[in-house]
Protein 1
Amino acid sequence: MGEGVDPTHMCQTLVHKVAQSRQLMAVTDPDILILFESWLDELEYEVAAYLKQHPQGTTGDLAESLGLSKRGADFLLAKLQRQKEV
């Protein structure tokens, strides 16, 4: 086909992603999702409380203080900023 997108590869990738999605949906338990959401809410509360006490703290400080990875701290900060909670 020359340069550009390979439609066969795109279709194979799409089919693989749909299969993965179905597999994940099959093992998802609503009770586990509720627990996860509760845990995430608690983490967001802890992040907001930390930021109030340490307004000049870095993401690394936040991660270390709460036992998170730096990537996890970045995610939570971005989420709270999008929600305008910090």
Note: Residues 30-53 form the longest helix (24 residues).
Protein 2
Amino acid sequence: MTKVLVIYTGGTIGMIKDPETGLLNSFDFNTVYEHIPELNRLHTEIDTMSIKKPIDSSEMTSEHWVNLAKLIKKNYHHYDGFVILHGTDTMSYSASALSFMIQGLNKPIIFTGSQLPIGVIRTDGKENLITAIEIAASKDSNGESIIQEVAVYFEYSLYRGNRSSKVSSNQFEAFKSPNYPELAVAGVNIKYKWSALQRSEFSEPIYQFGMSKAVALLKIFPGMDIELYKGLFDVTQTKGIVLETFGSGNAPSIDKMQKIMTRYVEDGGLIINITQCSSGGVKQGAYQTSSFFNKIGVISGTDMTAEAALTKLMFVLGNEEDSDKIKALISMPICGEMEC
């Protein structure tokens, strides 16, 4: 039997209705077989654990990511795969962060959750949990895990974790992967897209737990007064900024904005340029309004999601000190988070 560890961090999926009061209370995952007897038919040994204090995903911090990564490291050789139950609001941030912190995986780490509590009759949580566990336990004909990366499973689709984004607060199809194909689709059978799957060159994962907090995310908008954000471009406080620009990487040609950004980059600050669009990417220099970014050394984030760009910036700044190496790492794919 394959062994899968289910880790509960909090979120909607972990709630069940009290039959007497009708109130939603936290679900005890040690009794998961009682509430989801279908798991008995998976022929998989399932262990469960919960973080000390389950939280709403809006409370998630980089410290929680580090603790999760260390928990995986501690249990890595005892299980064939891992399923992390997580609130949907920041799931893509957490999945992206762990993909950078644990590189070279040869086992799956599958994030999942639900839009309705597992104790509600119409819940999507049961199917999400059952299929996530099945995927985490799945092996190929050579006995190797089919999925060897951090992924998000939601509503019949499996996405690369650092390519996913939450796109709906009220639909069961809450996640999408705007610039990368689904890793698998669960229908009558689970169909894997083999060409999209990641494979490691290493026999053991590489763990790096540094995560810098000296980062920011700034969205450009028409008519914005850059003076309101001037303090953000203080390199003694903010080491890196993810800049969400228009279309393929464009921003208004405002002299004051360009001077502030130029000074920030000259002082050693990092700016990653990503698009505000829900799909597509940045092509710096394609238009005159983005050629300025190339001139001052703004880094193109190509087709990264905001979640991936921000957590990648946190990760690189938290683990590297050499400025040239930092720029090189941000500019290139580390674990499939951006196009080459």
Note: The helical segments are 32-35, 62-75, 91-101, 125-137, 255-266, 288-296, 306-319, 323-331.
Protein 3
Amino acid sequence: MVAPTYLAFDLGASSSRAILGTLDGDRMDMEEIYRFTTPILEENGHLYWDIEGMWREIQAGFNEAITLTPTLCSVSVDSWAVDYVPIDAHGIPLRNPYCYRDRRTEGMFDVAFRTMPASRIYEHTGIQFLSFNTLYQLIAGEDEAVREGLDVYLTIADYFNYRFCGKPVIELSMASTTQMVDVYAKEWSGSVMDAFGINKANWPPIAQPGTWLGPVTERPSVMSIATCSHDTGSAIAAVPATDEEESWAYISCGTWSLMGVERKDALITKASREGGFTHEAGLDGTIRFLKNLSGLWVLQECVREWSEAERIDWGELEAEARQVASQGELIELDNPRFLPRGQMEERVRAYYQENGWRFPESRAQLVRTILESIAASYRRCLDELQKITGESIDRLYMVGGGTQNQLLCELTAQATGLPVTAGPVEATALGNLLIQARTLGHLPAGVTIREMAVKSSELRFYE
């Protein structure tokens, strides 16, 4: 028998990849078969995603998968949240989607809260207030040509699933991040949309995670599946937590860090709202009660700038950071000043000057300080989580690309005082692939996705 294979496209804000998964008994073997830099455009003072450039790369990855595995079973795309593509009645994009780091949403909180108070928006949606949320992007407005030609909006991953099979839906884990979904009904919130004049007809039906969308138009033997279109949703589905007696929290660690717990019900309180906690839909009716933290963004931007002058090796950076002592001062990485792209080291330097601190003497010292600052943000979030939920946490599960930085994992264990299980590195792709396999009925009888994740991963443990 030919082992069933599946294809996951995991789109990231900096790089994207195609991962081929092959089911081997009770484990999923993964192979990266294609990778590309996610194309971003700077035009007329705005940041956009090159949507057609991305589609060409996705097609190239899909063709590579077919060449390697002619009997491919299915395909699914996941991506970051909040950004969206306006398309016309013929399925053609009316413009490139804005990047969430574009500055056009600055000041939109003030505009929004004059229409509906923040407390009421939170009561309806349970979503953390971030200036780039879909709601505030819509409030910022559209060009007249887009308004006149608009048929439907699709979020990034769901747009590419649509390109594969022609069925326009937005999967629930992704829809929940827009701040326009009712946290209880898990459908578009008429209360929020009506208040802001958002036409519900321009937003397609919401699909549950693990929905068959239909055959791929150009390859009908391959099924298009909506897994968890939001990359964090797929990643948390693959958290290798199987001890039902253990109370645990997760950190999905990459450009952003998403830290939280998995719940069955919403926790809409003044404390959760003021603490910046969000309720994002997960697999099987779960709620990801979490907080968005800056993650590796500041360090990644510094490395990108340094790479313009010389080749930078991440492993060498980590090794050098291990050799230097802690400087003591920590950076508030979630400060809005660090959100935009570009001139990151200069902005960090200005932050130090404003606080009267001595800027790190070496690149290694700066790297260590950023990593220590990330770990400190985890500690603060852990304290808030335990206070708001009234539950103590026994273990942290760190998943995603950031777990490759072992120094960060060690610093996290030290800062939080908790044991840390790190891995899988490709949690998002693994979750995506396992949901595909379960949707097609291919998982071994009685074996859960998380049990499969344990057997499919190389895990590291930090005390």
Note: The mean pLDDT is 96.
